[in-house]
Amino acid sequence: MEGACAVVHPLLIEACCKFQAEIMTSSFPAMGPCKTKIIGKQTEELKEASIRVQEDMNYNLTEVMVEFRPEHERAMFGLALCGNAFKKVYFDPSLNRQVSMYILQKILWCPMVLPA
């Protein structure tokens, strides 16, 4: 942004770091970031499927997608500093897996008028 001020007060950065630390402990608990919930009638088959999905998602987010946590931390810092955060999840053919990246607000393009 041309002509914008780049001065940031140390208290603002400290508050952003504290917010980021708090949100990371709640969004990445020891049991993993993904939790499943069965809506409707619960059967043993659905409970087992729910556990499988939760374990698979937690494995993918913590072990396979190695960029997920650092990008999530960047997004949470941006959320505290700017008031919003955008992440893009897409399939990367070179890695042959999904990738989750934090998108900076200054490079995000959204149309002003969305179709109804």
Straight-line N-to-C gap = 31 Å
- Give the rounded overall mean pLDDT: 88
Low-confidence segments:
none
Give the tally of β-strands: 2
Which structural category do the helix and sheet elements fall into? alpha+beta
Structural Rg: 18 Å
Strand order of the largest sheet: 1-2
Helix fraction, binned, reads: 40-55%
Strand content: 5-15%
Largest sheet: 2 strands, antiparallel
Query: How many helical elements?
Result: 3
SSE pattern = HHHEE
The geometry reads as: extended
Entry keywords:
about 10% strand; two-stranded antiparallel ribbon; about 120 residues
Please tell me about this protein's structure.
It contains three helices and two strands; from the N terminus they run αααββ. It has a domain of 79 residues. With 116 residues, it is of the alpha+beta class. The radius of gyration is 18 Å and the shape is extended. The longest helix is centred in the middle third of the chain and has 21 residues. α1 crosses α3. The mean pLDDT is 88.
Ordered list of secondary-structure elements with their pairings:
Layout: H1 10-27, H2 44-64, H3 68-82, E1 86-92, E2 97-103
Antiparallel strand pairs: 1-2
